[in-house]
Amino acid sequence: MVFAGRIISGITGGNISTAQAYIADVTTRENRAKGMGFFGAIFGLGFIFGPAIGGILSRFGIHVPFVFAAVLSFVNAVLLYLILPETVKKNSFEKIEQRKNRFVQLFESLHDARFGTLTAIYFFLVVAFSIMTYAFVLYTIFRFGYSAEQNGYIFAFIGALAVIFQGVLFSKLVHKFGENPLMIIGCVMMTASLFAIPFVSPDFGGLQGLLLVVALLSIGNAMAAPALSSLASKVAGDNEQGKALGTLQSGASLARAIGPAVGGVLLNNAVNQVDNFTVQRTFWVAATIMIVAAFIAVYFAKMEQSQAIS
After folding, report:
1. Strand partners, 201
2. Other C-beta atoms lying within 10 Å of the C-beta of residue 180
3. How distant, in Å, are the alpha carbons of 255, 303, 310 from that of 155?
4. In this structure, which long-range contacts are made by residues 34-39, counting pairs with CB atoms below 8 Å and at least 24 apart in sequence?
5. At what angle do helices 179-196 and 113-144 cross, to 10 degrees?
6. pLDDT digits over 215-250, tens only?
7. How far apart are CA 106 and CA 34, in angstroms?
8. How is the chain split into domains, by residue range?
9. CA-to-CA distance for 294 and 77, rounded, in angstroms?
10. d(CA 146, CA 185)
């Protein structure tokens, strides 16, 4: 039943890229980053309220949060159908005789130097972040002895920072600096935080140090992720927003499958336990992946700069 649920979830999981494409359709190129930042802020709100609601409802039975989530999704679908206007007009796009497999589109996107580079950056970012989300709870249990409730508070803190940064500050920073610098700075901040996490313990840094490094990680991700979505939307044509952002999310989905698998191998020692060495190598591998993403981001920025000059 778990596999059946995940299969259904995967089949119906195209809503993120569709929502991003909708935002691209209803915003101008100048306001695209602001729209993507607001989209990320809403994700942050979900990160805060979702675990809290699930925790409260679980008191009435382990199945209740799942039923509530299903009802919420159904209500959302009904409201979308009845209220949200369509942005794509009929006959405004070329019809494709045969739709290609999503993974074929993903690899074909690499032929476009600009979009392929952005896809690669986003892929490595999500791999690293997925390793972190897999390993973080096990790390806090091992180092700090935290419970699920205490970890929930930390993730709520991460979500709150994402809401504040993406909903309030991101558009202002984009207006002042542009997406490329924010993408690079975000990748560097994520690299630094992932590298620093293994050094934090109750004896070194304590809770304050832990909150500091996760704040750095949250803000870095809140810079890089919406900047990448905005740039990918701008690189694609007006009639290819859904395809482009869907391809970007396909790469992210592949990364979310690879990240936990890599993290699981790295975090486990020979006796099926977590130790200081496995914690170090897990987060440092994630940091190394983010270094690769940062270098590719610098390459993309230079490529855009040289193209603008020419």
Report:
1. 204, 205
2. 19
3. 21, 36, 45
4. 34/170, 34/171, 34/174, 35/230, 36/226, 36/227, 36/229, 36/230, 36/233, 37/166, 37/167, 37/170, 37/171, 37/174, 37/226, 38/166, 38/167, 38/171, 39/166, 39/226, 39/229
5. 30
6. 999 999 989 988 888 888 877 766 666 677 777 777
7. 26
8. 11-87+111-309
9. 38
10. 31
Q: Do the beta carbons of residue 114 and residue 125 sit within 8 Å? A: no
For the four alpha carbons of 11, 12, 16 and 18, in that order, the dihedral sign comes to positive
* Whole-prediction pTM: 0.77
User: pLDDT tens, 98-141?
Assistant: 555 555 665 666 667 788 888 899 999 999 999 998 899 899 99
| CA 190/CA 218 separation, integer angstroms | 8
Reply yes or no on domain 11-87+111-309 having CATH 3.30.300.180.
no
What radius of gyration, in Å, describes the C-alpha atoms of the chain?
20
In whole angstroms, give the CA distance from residue 25 to residue 115: 18
Q: Which residue reads 């074909």 in tokens? A: 108
Count of residues in the chain: 310
Place of tokens 């119906």: 12
Among 200, 202, 156, smallest CA distance to 45 is for 156
- The amino acid at residue 26 is V
What gap in Å lies between CA 141 and CA 168, rounded to an integer? 33
- Paired tokens of 220: 């870095």
